[in-house]
């Protein structure tokens, strides 16, 4: 088996292997790394998944991208250790399920990606005797997932930028109560501002000596683990191999990219529903073929999806033969009809999100939080339009206890705090506040030399 190489969506010609792409984060030309090919899993392999555990399925999906870069037993151990929690499928009604991706240590689906990426980075850095600073921007959940995944590691420091006013108190506390090698920065601004600051730091020649790497969903180490739970969910709801509809609440589109990679690797998928909140730049592109970022992004209650220009669209376009640079300029249109064949895009307003949370609770006694509600509402729209007969899975990407105020108001239920978040409200916080200028960030980063 020849080792899969990764190319940059901006067209730079150098190819790197998985290790190179993981440690660099972003390609030198500011593009995102994409695998040159998608290894396909045979139908026989996929037919065995219903008998396999989550980490065993993860091994089959991820191993082909790593080749011999990681020893087999080391990879098995990492996967077992990273995926030590439950991944429940909750039945809502006939053949319609929620995939609960909220049982990890920070109670959002970001744990799936961050925990494996953290372990892989540590493996490669140890091998080379290197150390590194992870610089990452978060709209709410990435920061805590990454912070927990790297917490306490000696050769890695983590600096997290979050928009001061756009994360809930519990989301903030998950980042700010760790200390040690974790450095949270509360930035005056929005998620897009945080992301822009991070991107600028990466290409700043004066910071080259810092060994900065990203842990955003732009890192391939985040992307590949997100293909696994689609295979897992499929194996549980369609063990006979039928096609499944997946609805994916989307912000930066890393989660959906994971699904599309699963599809390219042979997973039987009927349709992906890409459900956004009122930041509807992607659904509008799917309708009109014209891409316009939303600047500034809108503040919706599904705060981890308040993204006005999703980084992963560069990958999505590349997957369908197009090319988009990091600013959202489209150099080559993707094959829109192929995209429409595989993806149904829909935007859900805050009002509909709230209505969905109320109705899911009153009709089915299912407690959704705002992100999962966007996904579920998207699925309901799709089913209304195309019929209700395929098995369908809607991703619930966070625990309702992360958004207690909204849930109490809408359902009267105070979501119980999962064990992973117990005592969070009492712990001491440590973080710095920072204005949104690049000069301030750069000054701060220079302190790490
Ligand atoms: C990050 C996040 C999303 C969006 O995922 P993308 O990969 O950015 O599209 C959805 N829900 C929750 C809870 C998140 O934290």
Architecture overview:
This protein has 449 residues and is an alpha/beta fold. The chain has a domain at 87-109 and 222-411: Rossmann fold, CATH 3.40.50.1100. Helices cover 41% and strands 16% of the residues. A hairpin with a 2-residue loop joins strand 3 (89-93) and strand 4. The model has no long low-confidence stretch (mean pLDDT 94). Pyridoxal-5'-phosphate binds next to helix 11.
Short description:
It contains 18 helices and 15 strands. With 449 residues, it is an alpha/beta fold. It binds pyridoxal-5'-phosphate.
| Ends apart, CA distance between termini | 41 Å
Mean pLDDT: 94
- Tell me the β content: 15-25%
CA radius of gyration is 20 Å
Overall outline: globular
Bound molecules: pyridoxal-5'-phosphate
The percentage helix is 40-55%
The third-level CATH topology of the domain at 87-109 and 222-411 is: Rossmann fold
Count the beta strands.
15
Number of H/I helices: 18
Oligomer: single chain
Low confidence ranges: none
What is the second-level CATH architecture of the domain at 87-109 and 222-411? 3-Layer(aba) Sandwich
Judged by helices, strands and strand pairing, the structural class is alpha/beta
Modified residues (N6-(pyridoxal phosphate)lysine): 110
Enzyme class: lyase
Organism: Methanothrix soehngenii (strain ATCC 5969 / DSM 3671 / JCM 10134 / NBRC 103675 / OCM 69 / GP-6)
GO molecular function: threonine synthase activity
Topology of this protein?
Blueprint lengths: L5 E3 L9 H7 L8 E3 L7 H6 L5 H13 L5 H11 L6 E5 L2 E5 L9 H19 L3 E6 L4 H9 L5 E8 L5 H8 L5 E6 L3 H12 L9 E2 L6 H4 L1 H13 L6 E6 L4 H11 L4 E8 L4 H8 L24 H7 L3 E2 L5 E3 L3 H7 E5 L2 H15 L5 H17 L5 E5 L7 H8 L20 E3 L3 H9 L3
Parallel strand pairs: 4-14, 5-6, 5-8, 6-7, 7-15, 9-10, 9-14, 10-13
Antiparallel strand pairs: 1-2, 3-4, 11-12
This protein binds pyridoxal-5'-phosphate.
Pyridoxal-5'-phosphate binds next to helix 11.
